[in-house]
Each structure stands twice: as structure tokens, then as C-alpha cells.
Batch of 3 targets.
Target 1
Amino acid sequence: GFFEAVEAQDTSRLFKRLAVFDVCCALTIQGIAYPDLTPEAFLHYSVSTRQGRFGVYTYGNYVGHLAWQVMYDTGHFPPSAPATLRACLRAPQLSADELVDQHGITNPAVRQLLVDYIERRSHDLDYGTTASLATLLVLNFWKGVEAINPDQQDLRLSQETYQAWRQAIRVRHDGKRRTDEDRILQAVRALYFDLQAWAAQEPERWAIWV
């Protein structure tokens, strides 16, 4: 369907080929299937390609534009996403508070922990990766935990809660089978590992969560 939509665009053969190339690269590099290519994931690919100057020919400044437009127009991207990659690149970047609060978690203490964690990690990451990390930890991890156990107050999950969450993330929010489960698990494991490491240096701030 994506290939057909690209072919129907009123543009040159070169740009059509490069639109397909962009999507194939994004899927290959991130190890995901097309249904799991989110706006955040494709934005990360586009920005990283520009920053690394990996664009082919004189295409560097146009990486991802046609592919984004096609994915938006065909409904692959949600209506809440910017209609064009240009609009997305020009959009103001959200703060760590805003990245967390857009998912509306209930527990105020965990909310603040995730805000602090994402803020600290953001110093070593580009914005696209930071936004993706917020989605993985807040939406895919903690919102899922709250749905299973609304009374969960900390990161010490019972075996029952953990197994129920593992089962739940195998299915995406649209009901389709998830193919990027490992990305979520890696982000959550990194959260626990980082907190453990940081607690040794700043116990007054992080030790309560270890």
C-alpha cells in the first residue's frame, strides 16, 4: 500500500525511489516492521540522517519529506502528527514535563521520577530519541502498569504484575501484534540500571526508587 501511494505521487522517479529508500532504511536500522514505524521513529531516522550527512546525492536536505507526507496522507501516521516533516521539524520541542504529561499518568511521584529521568537522559540524546524514550517509558511501560495495578506506587513490581505487563505489551494499542517489544524492554531495563547506578552517586535523589 505504501509503495502504491508513493507511485501515485506527482513527483520525479528519483524522489519516489528515495521515499521508499527512506522507509526501508528506517525499518532496517531500527529493526522494526512497517506497522511499528511511528512518527517519532521516522523523525529520529530523518534527523539522524541529516546530522550525519548520510543523505544520498544532493538529497540530504530532503530526507524523509515525501515518505512522511505519504504515511500521513494514507493514515499510517495518526491525525495528531504534523501533516508534513517540515512542520514537525519546525515545531517547538516539548520539555521533559510536557513529554511525560501528554500521556496522563496517575501517580505523581512516578510522574516526577520519569520527568527527572528523561530530563537527565536528554542531555546525551537528540530530541527525537528523547521523545521516543518518553513514549516507551511513560506510555508503553508505566501506563501499562497502572492499567494492570492502579495501586502500584513504586518500581518494585510483583511477579504477577510484571508478567501481566509483559503479556500486554505484545499487542499494540490498535490491537495488532507488536514487533518492537525488545525496544520497550531495553528502555525499561536501562531505566532500572541507570537508577541503580545513579543512586550510588546521588542516593538522596535516586535511592528510594532502587
Target 2
Amino acid sequence: LDGLRDRADVRVIYTGSAAEYGSGSRLLEDGAPTPGTVFGAAKAAASIITQTYSRLYQMQTVVLRLFTPYGPWEHPRRLIPHTILSALGGEDVRLSNGQQRRDYFYIDDAVEALVLAATAPVSPGTTLNICSGSGIKVQAVVQLVLKLMGHPVRAVVGALPTRSDEIWESSGDNSAARRVLGWSPKIRLEDGLRRSIAWITENRELVGSLT
């Protein structure tokens, strides 16, 4: 940001996170950051710095607060690829209680939001939620993945401890992104999961090597 202070022609897009908010449903951009994790605090701090540069130096900045994108190239230890890889390997999927809610949207929709944020007319310092607009329980997502794969293994609920800093509710309101960018997610969860299953199945060795 400091290196770009004098570049009025450059727009900086910062990928923030729903973790900046802490826990909540249908969260709006004007809510005060109350992160419940160190990761969320770091993301919130970077968002504030980005917005401050915009105010002080009239820089073109946009903060996109991504909720839970998923799809190809996702880290294998994240929920959806972990579930798919476990099913492909014939291993039951071990979960905590699975009651956490997350706001999932497919990676192609995330890419579209980033491109629009970089190219559409957007006021400097704008912050936008990028999300589906509704939360779904982790347990339900795992069960849907296994259903689409023909139930090759079981989901074992309660097999893992719950994290001490767990965020139980996380979903956002995407009306500002619709209004400012003309963006809303196009790919339904079930269709996105089918694409993820197909891609990970075809690239199983590659996915397993991602770090």
C-alpha cells in the first residue's frame, strides 16, 4: 500500500474474511469487527489498514470479505476436499459435532467477484461481503458430499473435539455486492460439490500433495 500511494491509476483489492466479524448470521459490512480468532484479528487489522490508506491518500481500495469459498485447488485438509479424499480412500469422515454453520460459494463465483471489484465502478474504500447469503451446517455439507458420491463411507459425528475458538454461526448478507458489483453467486451448492468431486477424483494425487 505504501509503495502504491502515488499511483492513482492502481486499484488494490484486498481479500478479507468473514472471520473478521466473529460469529453471526446474515452479517452486514457496517458491523464492527469482533473477531473470535487470531486469524480473524489479523484479517481485520489488514482491512482497517487498507481502508485507512484509502481515506488518507485517496487510494483506490476495495475490501472483499470472503465467507467460505470452495472448489478446485482447495487445501486437502479443508472440509470439502478432506471429505471427498476420505471417501475416495474408503475412510470414514471424522467430525466434531458438525453443528457449525458456514456460508459456502463456489470458487468460480469468487473469481468473478474479484474481477468485478477490479474493473467495475466502485467507490474507493468500499467493503463488500462475498457470500451465498445463507449458512448450512458442516454436518449437512458432509452428508451431501457423501450422498453425491453414493455413500461409500460414513460421517462419524463427535469423533473429533471442538476447537476452543470455534465460530458457530457464519453467514453474510450479499445485497451490497449485488448493488455495487452486480454480483451474486451463480453456482448452486450441489452443482459446485459435483464439480469439486469430479475435479478432485481426476486430480487425486495432485490434491494430496498440496501444502
Target 3
Amino acid sequence: MILNYHGRNVTVDDVLIRALERQAFDTNRGWLHSNLVTVLRSFGLAAHRRNWRLLDGHENQYLAGRSLDEDARLELENVRSQMLDEGIWRLRQLLSADLPVTVSVHRPRGDDSSIGHQVVLLGEDAQEFIYHDPAQDEGPSLSWPFDNFRNNWKGLAIIAHSAALSPSKG
């Protein structure tokens, strides 16, 4: 989907073969975003990954020796929420620039223990994201209400461009 959008005429099978060659899938962890970025680059795209859940698993480093009391718990919760809000803002900016974005979500929805699943956000309307899920027959016209998406988004995205953008352009 992303490759075809950027003028790369490849099949899903072509991408899967290259992804497996580059060890972009692990049966215990799912899709490995760094390796998926390498796959996109191997097809001539400029690509990078973003993670708006960098705090997860690093709470002690963030607290820098402070005890995990109620105030610290609330602070961590607020920071996590702010990071996701920043991520949603960035996704919307990319979509408004007509740039589809690959995101990692829980599948099935609501299952925080899932290893994740990749879908491509294509746009948005007033109440929901429009996306494509390659594992569903309905095609690229699926919709996902904002709040439900936010609760199921793993905070990870892969952003790909047909040419490298300077930092000042996004």
C-alpha cells in the first residue's frame, strides 16, 4: 500500500519475501519496525520509525531516583497521555499533507497483550481515521473512531516518503 502510493509497483508477495529476508518478523515479537524501515528503504523510499510510548518500561529512568508514590504515578500517567496526544497530532499532520502512515495496533482490538498488527492510515474525517487493513477483505475504506483508535494504538508509526524531507519540512 505505502510502496504503491509512492510509485513503487510491487506486490504484497514481493514485500513479504523481502521482509522475511531482512528478518522483519519475529514470531514472539511480531513485526520489527526497524527492519520494516530497512525493507521500505530497500525499495527506494526514505523511511523512519517513531515511538510515542518511549516511556513504557523506562519509568525508573524518568523518575531519576524519585519514589513511585501517588504523585509520581499521576505524573507518569499524564506524560504517557501527552506523548500519545503528540503522536496523534503528528499522524493528523501527516495525513493532512496527504501522506499515508503505517501504524501498529493491538489485534484484536482491546487486547494489550497482542504482539500487534500493522494498518495504514489513509486520512480522517470529523470523527474517525480512515485506514486500510491488509488482513481484512473490506479494503482501504475502513474507519476507526478517534478514541477507539487511541486506546488500541501501540504508539508506533513508520513514516515513509518518496524522497527525503528536510527536518524543516516535516
